Amino acid sequence: MDKFNPDTELLERLSWLINLRWLALGGVVITIIFSHSVLRLNLPLFSLGLITAILGIYNLLFYLCLPRVTPETTSELYARASRSANWQIAADLIALATLIHFSGGIENPFIFYFIFHMIIASSLLSRRASFRQATFAVTLFFLVAFLEYYGILAHYGLGRFITNDQYQNAIYITGVAVVFTTTLYIAVYLATSITTRLRQRERILEETNELLKEKDRVKSEYVLRVTHDIKEHLAAIQGCLEPVIIGLAGELNPPQFDLIQRATLRTGKLTQFVKALLEITRIKLSQEFRMEYFPIKEAVDNALSFISLKAENKDIKITTHIDPQVDKIRGAKEYIQEVMVNLLANSVKYTPRHGRIELTIIDRGNEILLAVKDTGIGIPKEELSMIFEEFHRADNAKAVERDGTGLGLSLVKQIVEGHNGTVWVESEEGKGSAFFVTLPK
Amino acid sequence: MAKILIIDDDPDIVEAMKVVLKTKDHQVASAASGAEGLKLARLDQPDLIILDVMMEKMDTGFSVARELKKDKNYQNIPILMLTAIKESTGLDFQKEAGDEDWLPVDSYLDKPLKPAELIDKVDSLLSSR
Questions:
Q1: Which of A137, A267, A322, B117 is the most exposed, having the fewest neighbouring CB atoms within 10 Å of its CB?
Q2: Looking at the predicted complex, does its ipTM rise above 0.85?
Q3: Domain boundaries A292-440, corresponding CATH code
């Protein structure tokens, strides 16, 4: 079940943040080199280089300490991931503040890059934590501005980029401080509003999905009950018709025999349909198979015994190739056998007289591949995508065989997917079909 | 000719079986519930019991069979169990019928019944007594 998981989501965002930081690091290096060699600004290269190096080192550490998804309690994992995000953003804010201090302080226009951290915080953290980060950023801003203003920290001017020293201009500082502070808080407010809404919507979708699944289950249970009742009645009808048709209730005249025979045949077909529907519904409801290791050869022989007579009647040759490496396979034996019977029976049904059917089983390392190929009528291109759907029958199949439940292949699909396997088909109309099933070992 | 008791709550199926079995001149009685079946079995001492699994409950047939096999006077009466259960429960009868404790019956048949199969089964159970 691919349930939405906020914990793994946060973990994914964390590694995204780390990747983003590598990019930022590259950006910082390029900016420093550009400012130094092209703009010819007089920068304290050693300090800037040192901070950049620290940035690289702590990013590496964060990468190595990235909380991994383990079977431990997810709430604890979530708390760890959330703490990690908080620390990472705080570290980034300090790194940016220090870089800015060594490159012009509040005169450096890059000071507005703090807004990016606010957006990142808003997407990763709670609203409250995001505002806390905004307050921390504003504090760092004021710290740099005041310490440089009062001369406690040295001011590293940007030379010809900013010609008159603004870091001593109280009005300028106040103006920038107001704009800076409001920018950060507004950014957090806007971004968290959006993310809160998105998270809410995601939760609603998740809940709706659960509800739909539940409804589908209720529907399946309903189908199960109804089909079961129908089957009971059918069994009684058949039980009553059979003795009549074989003459146990007295001799029938030809028209009577004909009509009773028609009724019996139709009841038989309806029983087949109801049985298939019952089985498919039951599998849908349980989705669990009793797995065991069983000899593949035995299952193949059993499956073949079900269809060999029909194949002989149409003079269809069935060949089997079982990879000698494949001895036992893992699965619910009855069901895997049923998959083979269904695929083989389909091939026999839709292959003209004197045709060929090939059953191949090969070892593909971590999975078993089972293939049934025939020289039958094939499947029209536009129907290929639909043939595994319940009740769907291809047009040319209906032309060959009027009766059919349209459930055989969807049963195959349900069983194979219940085994975590895959099933697909390759076919060309008029040339034949090949069905493939993989089963994990 | 033998005395056969059918325990099944579906009157139509019972009637159909009667038609089939009477062609072999068997004397057939029927009961429509597990409790009635037990009573008749004790009263009539049939030569063979045909027992449906699902009656009042999903497993009424099982408990009737266990009850009969527990009793020394009746444990030798062969029981032929009728099962339409495979499709609805997924239980595989073939595999577990050998387990006496789990399913103490002598043979079983899938519904819908084929007259020829019913006659064969009944014949072989009667002759093996």
A1: B117
A2: no
A3: 3.30.565.10
